[in-house]
Design goal:
single chain, globular, mainly alpha
Length: 101
């Protein structure tokens, strides 16, 4: 039996002063850095968790928009995440900004 968890992100409204890249950085640092490397240089605490800077090697980043909005569900220990439209935009912009080719 597979357990499905939904992680609800409770963010204050995105700040126009910060911008989507900075908001996305804060969001993934707060919610994803326990397992994933979330910058261009850090190591993933969980060696099985792909560093976010390499996600673009597997998927076009903009193709993740729908999955982030509807909920990403994988078959391992990662919980399901559902984000609102502003959060999706912020995460996508941040992921685009850190990709290493």
């Amino acid at each position: 039996m597979r357990l499905h968890l939904v992680a609800a992100f409770m963010l204050s409204p995105l700040s126009s002063a910060a911008g989507p890249v900075e908001d996305g950085a804060a969001l993934v640092k707060r919610n994803c850095s326990g397992c994933h490397a979330v910058t261009q240089y850090d190591a993933s605490p969980n060696p099985r968790a792909i560093p976010f800077r390499f996600i673009g090697r597997l998927y076009p980043i903009n193709h993740l928009e729908e999955a982030l909005a509807e909920g990403i569900l994988v078959g391992h220990e990662m919980p399901e995440f559902v984000l609102n439209l502003n959060q999706v935009t912020a995460v996508i912009r941040y992921l685009e900004s850190i990709q290493v080719r």
